[in-house]
Amino acid sequence: MNASTTATNPNTASDTRALLEASRLQVTFTARGRPPARGVDGVNLAIGQGEIVALVGESGCGKTTLARSLVGLEPPSDGEVRFEGETLGTSTKDLRRYRRRVQLVLQDPTGALNPRHSVYDSVAEGLRIHGVVSSRGGEDRSETQLVAHALSQAGLRPPERIFLNYPHELSGGQRQRVVIAGALALQPELIIADEPVSSLDASIRGEILALLLKLRDDLGLSLLVVTHDLGLAWNIADRIAVMYLGRVVEMGTAEEVLQRPKHPYTKALLSVVPEMDELEPQVLRGEIPDPSRIPRGCRFHPRCPALADGEAERAGVAGDCLATSPDVLPAAGPHAAACHLHP
Amino acid sequence: MSAPSSTTTQTPRQLTWQRRQAAAVRTWAEFRRHKSGLFGLGVLTVFAMLAVLAPLITDRSGLSVTQSTGGVLEAPSSEFWLGTDQSGRSVLTLLIWGGRISLLVGLLATAISMLIGTVIGLASGHFKGWFGAALFRLTEWFLVIPFLPLAIVLQAVLGASLANLIFVIGVTSWPGTALLIRSQTLSIEERPYLERARVLGAGNWHQMTRHVLPNVMPMVFANTTLTVAIAILSETTLSFLGLGDPLRVSWGSMLDDAFAAGAITTGAWWFLIPPGVAVILVVLSFTLIGQALEEIFNPRLRERS
Amino acid sequence: MSALLEIQDLSVTYRTREDDLPAVRGVDLTVNAGESVGLAGESGCGKSTLASTILRLQPPSAEVTGAILVEGEDVLTLGWGELRALRWAGASMVFQGALHSMNPVQRVGDQIAEPITLHDSSVSARDAASRVEELLDQVGLRSATARSYPHHLSGGQRQRVMIAMALACRPRLIIADEPTTALDVMVQAQVLALLADLVNELQVGLLLISHDLSVLGTTCDRAVVMYAGRVIEQGAAFDLFARPRHPYTTALAAAFPRVGNHAARYAPAGLPGDPPDPRDLPSGCTFHPRCARAVDACSGHDPRLLSIDDGERAVACIRVTQEVPV
User: Does A281 contact chain C (CB < 8 Å)?
Assistant: First the structure.
C-alpha cells in the first residue's frame, strides 16, 4: 500500500498526549453466591491521536469488558478512564458528551441494526439523539446531508441508493459499513471496534479493514480494535496489547510483539496461528481459567511452557513465577511483557 | 442491493411511509390466507355493523318496558323474529342493542388494560434495579387478585354503572398483558441494537419508544384481540350475576333476565340461546383473528431477528 | 483402495414458491479412509448444503441429482432402514455451533450415549456408559464431564463433546462443518490437533469444512475450494494455501495474512463486491464480476475444472488452464 504510512507509530514516547487512557482500570463482577470475578484486573492502556491499537486475546481475557468500560457502558470498579486528560464521569449527561467523541462498533452487524429501521434511520439515530443538525465548523447541514456524508465515508456510494433499505436486504459487508457510518455520523475522534470483521466472509474482510485504515489516514481517527485474530492485528495495528485473564501481558508495536514476542503466552498464540510456519506449534493445555479464580503468582504460570520445561527454573525465576504477580505494564512505552523471565 | 432510487422529489420520511403502507398491504394479503381468521373477521364485521347501525335498523323504543307491544315470552313469529321477553320486548331488538353494550365494554376495558399493561410491562422490563422490580411485584400482586370478589366489592363501593364495569374489567386484566410485554421486553433488551443505541447516547425514553416498543407491537396487537375476547366474557359474567348496569341491556343481562324469568323451565329457548350464541360467536371470532395475527407476526419476528 | 466417500456430479437445488436456488452445481469429491479433505468456501458457496446432503439431511424442498457413494453404496437411493443404519454408524457429523446443536436440558453423557442405544437396542446401560467414558477420554475430557449440562461447559469443551458424539458409533467417515469457527485460536489448535490424531488412530475419513483456508492448509491432506456451488480449485492442501492458482483462492488465502509478511502490513487484501446471490448468478464464470484477472471471454464461458501441474492441481479458470472457450 502506501509507504508513507510508516510502520512506526507516532506515539511510542511516554510523554504522549494520549487521547484515551485507562489507568489502573479494574472491573469486577459480583454475582450472588459466587466469588467476585475480576474481568479487568489492573490495566494501563493509552491510545494516541491517529493511532491504531489492537487489543488481542482469547475469549474470557477481558478485552470486551475493557472495551465496554472505555466507552462508558461498564463503570470501573477501580481506576479510571481519561479522555484528553479528563476523567470520565458516570452521570448520563457527562456520558452523553463523551459519546460524541468516542464511539463503538459492535461485533455482529446483523444484530447491531434494528431490523425495523431503515438504513437512513439507523445512521441518523445518533444525530437525532444528540439533536445535531449542523456539523461543527460552521457549515449548516441538514440531517439528510450528514447521513449521506457518513454513508459515503463508510464506502457506500452513492449513499442515497441505500437510504431506504432494511438490514435484511443488505449483505454482511454492507451492514457493517452501515454500522460504521452510524458511528461516523457523530464525527467521533476515536472508534472502538469489537471484532469488526469476525462475522464477515473472508473475502470481504479486507475491504472493511482497508476502510478502517482509510478512516485513520483521511480523518485522523484513532482506533482501538479488539480482536482474537493476530493476522488482523498484523494487517492494521500500530501497537498491540495482548491480554490474558484481565491483564495486559505484553505491549509494544506490532512488529515487536508479533515478530519478537517476549511473553510465553504471546509466543504460544503465535505458534498456533496456522499461517505461522516458522514457530514450532505450542498447543497449550487446558483453557483460560475462570476470572473468579485467578492463579496466585503470575496468572499464566499453570499453563506456561517456560515454567513447565524448566526454562524458568534455569533462569532462577521459577520461584517468582509461583509467588509474585508481575507488575502492571505502563500505558505506553517501549516493548514490555509482564513476565519474570522476559520482562 | 435492491433500493428504489429516491432523492429527487420525496423525503426519506415520505418514502418510509410508503414502505409502511406496502407492509400493511402485505400483512393483509397474508391474513387473507388464514381461512379461520377470515371467518372470524367476517362474523365480527356482521356484529359490528349491527351494533353501529342499531339506531337505524331498530327502534330504540323497543327497549322500553313500558312501550312493549308483544305478549309475554312469545315464541318467534313473523312479527318478532326471535320472540319476546318477559316484558313483551322483541328479543331481536334486545340482542342488537345488547351487542352495543357488550362490544363497547369489551373494547373500552381492553383499551384501558392494554394501555396500563403495555406501559407497566415495558417499564418493568426495561428498568433494572428496584424500579423495575417494584413494578414487577405490582404486576404479580394484581395478577393474583381474584376477579369476581373484586368486581363485587367495587360495585358495592362504587355503585353499579357502565363506567365502573369497564374500570373493574380493565383493572383486573392488565397484569396478563404486562407479563407478556415484560418478557418480550427482556428478550429485546438483550439484543445488540439496544446496546448500540446506548452507545450512541440514547436515554431510556429513546430506547423504549424507538427500539423496544416497535418490536413489541406485533405481539401487543395479537394479544389485544385475545384480551377483547376475555373482556367481553367478563362483562357477560358480571352482567349475568347482576353486577352490571341495571339500566342497560347487554347479552349478559339478557341471560340473567332469561334465567330469572324461568326461560329454561318454560322452554323459552329464543330468549336464552341467542345471547349465549352471540357471545360465543363474538369471542370465537376475536380468538380466531388473534390466532391468525400471531401466526403472521411471530414467524416474522423470528426471521427478522 | 476404493474411496470411502465418492460424490459424483452432485447438484442440489432449493425449490421455493418464487425461485429455484441452485446451491450445489455439479460437484465431484472423494475422501479415502485415513485421509482428511478440506472443503473451503464462504457463505452461499454450497458447502453446508453439500455436507447435509451426504447424510440426506437436506430440506424436503431440495431437489438432488447425482450420486453420493459411501463405501460404494449410493446414499440417495438407500431405503429408510439402510439410511438409518448409515447415519452415525457409517458416517457422522460434527455440527457448527455446538451450543445450539445440543439439548440444553439433557446431560452431556446421555446425549453421547443416545446414538449408541438407538443403533443397538441390546446395549446395556452400563456398556453404554463405559463407551461414553471411553469416548470422553479419546477427546481429552474428564469422565466427570458426562454428568454436566451443555451450558456448564466452555466452547472448546462443547466442541469436544460434539466430536465424541460423532465418534459414538464408530463411523468410517466424519463430516465436520466449521468445527472451529467460533473458537479461539488456541482452542482451535487443540480441536484440530485432536481431529488429526483421530484420523490417524482410527483411520477414519474426515471431510473438514471451513472458510478459513489456513486451517485447512495446515490440517488436511487435500483441499477443495467451492464458489457459487462449483468446485473451482482442488489439490494438496498446504500447496493450495501457499501457492493458490485460481484468483478466488488467491483472495481467500490472502484474507488470512501471514504474520511477518511485510507486504501485508497496512495492506489488507479483500475482494470487491459480495458473494453471489444464487437467485441471480453471473453469466459465464460466476466469479468474473469480482475477478481482477477477468477478460471478456470470462463472462460468456463457464470454465471447466481441468488438471494442471501433472494432475497435482485442478483449476476452473480459463486464465490459468488456458482452456479455450468453445
Answer: yes
CB pairs under 8 A between A and B: 95
pLDDT value, residue A31 = 81
DSSP state at residue A280: P
Q: Show Cβ contacts of residue B153 under 8 Å, excluding neighbours closer than 6 positions.
A: none
List the alpha helices (DSSP H) in chain C.
Answer: 47-54, 80-89, 98-101, 108-119, 125-138, 155-167, 185-202, 213-219, 237-242, 247-254, 318-321
What is the percent of chain B with per-residue pLDDT over 90, rounded to a whole number? 20
Is the CB of residue B138 less than 8 Å from the CB of residue B224? no
Residues in chain A with CB shorter than 8 Å from the CB of C189 are: 272, 281, 283
> Any idea what the Cα angle at residue C291 is, between residues C289 and C293, rounded to 5°?
130
Which residues of chain C make contact with A274, given a CB cutoff of 8 A?
A: 212, 214-215, 217-219, 256
Q: Is the pLDDT of residue B178 over 90?
A: yes
The conformation of residue B59, written as its DSSP 8-state character, comes to -
Average of per-residue pLDDT across A239-245: 94
Nearest CA in chain A to B11: A144
Q: Rounded CA gap, B42 and B282, in Å?
A: 10
Instruction: Quickly state the pLDDT bin for B154 (edges 50, 70, 90).
Output: confident
Spatial distance between the Cα atoms of C320 and C326, rounded to a whole number of angstroms: 16
- Name the pLDDT band for A1 (thresholds 50, 70, 90): very low
Return the amino acid letter for B28: W
Residues in chain B closer than 8 A to A144 (CB atoms): 11-12
Helices (H), chain A: 63-70, 92-99, 109-112, 119-130, 143-153, 172-184, 202-219, 230-236, 254-259, 264-272, 305-308, 311-315, 318-323
DSSP letters for C104-126? TTS-HHHHHHHHHHHH-TT--HH
Beta-bridge partners for A26: A41, A78
Q: Would you state the cell numbers that stand for residue A272, as one nine-digit string?
A: 498456533
Tell me the pLDDT of chain A averaged across its residues.
Answer: 86
pLDDT of A221 above 90 = yes
- Enumerate the β-bridge partners of residue C37: C207, C222
User: Could you tell me the three cell numbers for A123?
Assistant: 445512521
| pLDDT, tens only, A185-207 | 999 999 999 999 888 888 888 89
Residue B108 and residue B114: Cα distance in Å, rounded? 10
Percentage of residues in chain A with pLDDT exceeding 70? 91
**Interstrand relation of A247-253 and A222-227 (parallel, antiparallel or unpaired):** unpaired
Tell me the residues of A at the B interface, defined by beta carbons under 8 Å apart.
71, 73, 92, 95-96, 99-100, 103-104, 106-108, 111-116, 118, 120-121, 125-126, 129-130, 144, 160-165, 168-171, 174, 179, 182, 186
Q: What is the pLDDT of residue B3?
A: 41
Please state the length of chain A. 343
Check CB contact of C311 with chain A, cutoff 8 Å.
no
Ranges of residues in chain C with a pLDDT under 50 are: none
The four Cα atoms B271, B274, B278, B279 give a dihedral, to 10 degrees, of: 50
d(CA C87, CA C73): 13
* Structure confidence at residue B60 as a pLDDT band (50, 70, 90): confident
Give the tens place of pLDDT for each residue, A93-137: 888 888 889 999 988 888 899 988 889 999 999 898 888 765 454
Query: ipTM score here?
Result: 0.83
Which positions ≥6 away from B164 have C-beta within 8 Å?
Answer: B154, B155, B158
Q: One-letter amino acid identity for B103?
A: L
- Residue that is written with C-alpha cell 409502511 in the block: B20
The single-letter code of the amino acid at B192 is P
3-state secondary structure of B297: helix
